[in-house]
Specification:
The two termini are about 35 Å apart. The strands form 2 sheets. The chain has an 8-stranded mixed beta sheet with strand order 1-5-4-6-7-8-9-3, with helices on both faces. Helix 5 links the parallel strand 6 and strand 7. It contains 10 helices and 13 strands. Helix 3 packs across helix 6. The protein folds into 2 domains: about 120 residues, Aspartate Aminotransferase, domain 1; about 220 residues, Type I PLP-dependent aspartate aminotransferase-like (Major domain) (Aspartate Aminotransferase, domain 2, 3-Layer(aba) Sandwich), CATH 3.40.640. Helix content is about 30%, strand content about 15%. With about 350 residues, it is α/β, with parallel strands linked by helices. The longest helix has 26 residues.
Length: about 350
């Protein structure tokens, strides 16, 4: 693990995301590049969102959804901010917080660093190494960093860091941002920090777009100290979250939704194990899987990965390139976890691509 300055010329495309792999000429491919759960949103959630359309003439009222999120995490509403996806939260944090030394732990989702750079900040990186299993060493984070950003489970490595390890990064005078966008895909949400109020400066981000298939609706939320929530809210226009998105947020906090989420997390774990076992059959070709993987995706290392990705596209499958993530290069790609039938077809295609 090492610290790296991003003040030098940026060589990674921080704005590249998985959806770029399946646009235009990739629209007919089997999508293993985007981490949104297939077959979503479920019918009951679509119907609930559709039912909110009758209220479009009125300005959005987020009080009920905000209260539902607060109740789900056992927090007062003053600690909740509803956002247009987690991506908006990164922009708000970059613009609203007066920080001197922001640090982003990589490899991870690139929007936090992109937002900080766009806001004029010089960003430092702590790069987690594959030989360490992309595991966090809290001592590698500079002690005087006043903003630290880390994902858990981390995209794209699928590593789930122990909550106690991340908690060691919290201290007075520092904002600790933990991106838990994929935590709802982890059984029992092991290692979650959402709902904790004992850690100074803790900000937890959640997304409802992945498990529930709401990427096009843009809905997520921030859990943070009331002062931080107020500062972020001041930087926004009025009514930033739409009525349908608010309806979806409230629905996803119900007992029915949480029970379904738990079932989905268990199924994802089983489907991921099937994928990882299949990938292990290609170890003789130099293929390795970062892990143990705990998210709804896996990171694959492979010599000549770029060429293999190209051959997979010819065979009808899109996977997410890895070289746009700081700390990774062209020998990596990410694969979304899908059902066993889809995984079986992908593994057969991978075998052909490697032959």
């Amino acid at each position: 693990m090492r610290t790296d300055s991003a003040r030098r010329e940026e060589t990674h495309d921080l704005r590249h995301h998985g959806d770029a792999e399946v646009r235009d000429d990739g629209s007919a491919l089997v999508d293993l590049a985007v981490n949104v759960r297939a077959g979503t949103p479920p019918a009951w959630l679509r119907d609930h969102v559709a039912g909110s359309l009758g209220g479009l003439a009125a300005y959005p009222d987020g009080r009920a959804a905000r209260a539902a999120v607060a109740a789900r995490h056992g927090l007062p509403v003053e600690r909740v901010l509803l956002t247009a996806g987690a991506a908006e939260a990164f922009v708000l944090l970059a613009r609203a917080l007066a920080v001197r030394r922001p640090v982003v732990v990589h490899p991870q989702f690139t929007e936090p660093e992109a937002a900080l750079r766009d806001a004029g900040h010089s960003v430092e990186r702590v790069l987690l190494r594959p030989e360490d299993g992309f595991r966090l060493d809290p001592s590698a984070v500079p002690g005087d960093a006043d903003l630290v950003v880390i994902g858990n489970p981390t995209n794209p490595t699928s590593v789930l860091h122990p909550a106690a390890l991340i908690a060691r990064l919290a201290r007075q005078g520092r904002t600790l941002v933990v991106d838990e966008a994929f935590m709802d895909a982890v059984p029992q949400e092991r290692e979650a920090l959402a709902g904790r109020t004992d850690l100074p400066g803790l900000v937890v981000l959640r997304s409802l777009t992945k498990t529930w298939g709401l990427a096009g609706l843009r809905i997520g939320y921030v859990l943070a100290p009331p002062g931080t929530v107020a500062a972020l809210d001041r930087g926004r226009p009025l009514w930033p979250v739409s009525t349908p998105a608010l309806a979806a947020a409230e629905a996803c906090m119900t007992g029915r939704a949480l029970a379904e989420q738990a079932r989905v997390a268990r199924r994802v774990a089983a489907d991921r194990a099937h994928l990882v076992a299949g990938l292990a059959e290609f170890a003789s070709a130099g293929l390795r899987v970062a892990g143990p993987a705990e998210g709804p995706f896996v990171l694959v290392g492979l010599p000549g990965a770029a060429a293999v990705r190209g051959r997979l596209r010819e065979l009808g499958f899109a996977v997410r390139r890895g070289d746009t993530f700081p700390g990774l290069d062209g020998t990596w790609f990410r694969v979304a976890v899908r059902d066993r039938a889809t995984t079986g077809r992908f593994l057969r295609a991978l075998g052909r691509a490697l032959a």
